[in-house]
Specification:
Helix content: over 70%
Radius of gyration: 63 Å
CATH architecture of one domain: Orthogonal Bundle
Strand content: under 5%
CATH class of one domain: Mainly Alpha
Number of helices: 7
Strand order of the largest sheet: 1-2
Largest sheet: 2 strands, antiparallel
CATH topology of one domain: Helix Hairpins
């Protein structure tokens, strides 16, 4: 039994909580005002019914008075004609009408008293309804203003439903940006430390060292060639660029000796390696072979 009572209490509490969230005080005030108007209408209807009954009694009393006056006149006429029996009958009926009039008067006084009380009650109820209407409109306006102020405050504070959704989306975007930045920084550190292999480069460390040494040798050769091309530079500097100096037979005119290559003509140097001047696949001043 206690379990069922507890369960009933829980259900009632849940229902009250749901109803409290769904209840609008303005609608509740309007409903209460409508009920008071209905009660006022019922009271007015009761006053009208009492007044109608009073009027009907007054009409009956007037009719009985008219009948009593007629009987009085008939009794007088009967006595004038020496008909006492008829006069006695007319006066007897008139006395009965008097009794009826007394009863109607009592009912009339009672209805009049009730009508007076009902009119006073109606006036009080009308005053209460009017005061409640004024208070209702004031409370509705205050509630509407407070509700608007609350919504404005929530919007400014960013805790309303729409603003909170926007704030959550912004926070998620910031978290993703921070995560991607952290990941990019971690990748750069791992690549710099050699913990990760650069797939775009050579996968053979030995070949990488050979390529580095070959590139260094090529740079030294190019530098020596550039030094030999400077004006006033000794011809031996050209030999330092990788070509041996011509044998002495060239100076004595020995038979079979080859003529020395004319590398300098009017201050111009022929491109080393025989590469065309406009070759798009060679650097300026670079030879054809390393």
């Amino acid at each position: 039994m206690s379990v069922m009572k507890r369960l009933s209490g829980i259900v009632q509490a849940k229902a009250n909580k749901v109803l409290d969230r769904a209840e609008d005080p303005r609608e509740t005030l309007d409903l209460s005002y409508e009920k008071q108007l209905e009660q006022l209408q019922q009271v007015r209807k009761g006053v009208a019914e009492i007044a109608t009954a009073r009027k009907r009694i007054e009409l009956q009393a007037r009719q009985l008075q008219a009948t009593a006056e007629k009987l009085q006149s008939q009794a007088t006429q009967a006595l004038a004609q020496n008909r006492e029996d008829l006069a006695r009958e007319a006066l007897s009926r008139r006395a009965g009408i008097g009794t009826q009039l007394e009863g109607l008067k009592a009912q009339h006084d009672q209805l009049a008293s009730q009508e007076e009380r009902m009119v006073a009650t109606t006036q009080q109820l009308e005053a209460r309804v009017s005061a409640f209407r004024t208070q209702k409109e004031t409370l509705k306006a205050s509630y509407t203003a407070a509700q608007a102020q609350t919504r404005i405050g929530e919007a400014v504070a960013g805790i309303s439903e729409s603003m909170s959704d926007t704030g959550l989306a912004l926070e998620r975007a910031q978290d993703k940006v921070a995560q991607m930045q952290a990941r990019a920084g971690a990748m750069d550190e791992l690549l710099s430390s050699g913990a990760l292999t650069d797939l775009t480069g050579s996968s053979d460390p030995l070949q990488a060292e050979l390529d580095k040494a070959s590139q260094s040798t090529q740079v030294e050769l190019e530098l020596a060639k550039l030094k030999g091309q400077l004006p006033g530079a000794p011809q031996e500097a050209i030999g330092a660029g990788g070509s041996a100096p011509e044998p002495a037979a060239a100076e004595t005119g020995a038979p079979g000796a080859a003529e020395p290559d004319e590398t300098v003509s009017d201050g111009e140097v022929e491109p080393p390696g025989g590469a065309p001047a406009g070759d798009p696949f060679s650097l300026p001043g670079q030879g054809g072979t390393a």
